[in-house]
Amino acid sequence: MLVKVILVFLGLMVLVALIGRALFPSALPRVLRKDAKPPVCGKCGRYVIGRKTCDCGGKAK
Ligand SMILES: [Zn+2]
Q: Ligand 1 center to residue 50 CA distance, Å?
């Protein structure tokens, strides 16, 4: 019984996530967006992953 409730709950979570993703793709964090390109430095064009600023002093776009 309890396992069934947990499975239904998980199913609902997945459903809500899928609907939310379909309706509001821009509201999701960058990590969940597969089509989004990784952040690139606006100054030198290098990938800036995991931080906001680049080694050259530029900021990620
Ligand atoms: Zn840079």
A: 14
What are the counts of helices (DSSP H) followed by strands (DSSP E) for the chain? 1, 0
Report phi then psi at 42, rounded to 5.
-75, -10
On whether the pTM is more than 0.90, the answer is no
What is the DSSP secondary-structure string of 1-61? -HHHHHHHHHHHHHHHHHHHHHH-GGGS-GGG-SSSPPPBBTTT--B--SSSB-TTS-BB-
Could you tell me the distance, in angstroms and rounded to a whole number, from the CA of residue 42 to the centre of ligand 1?
7
Q: What is the pLDDT of residue 57?
A: 87
10 φ, ψ (degrees, to nearest 5): -65, -40
Ligand 1: distance of its center to the CA of 31 in Å? 21
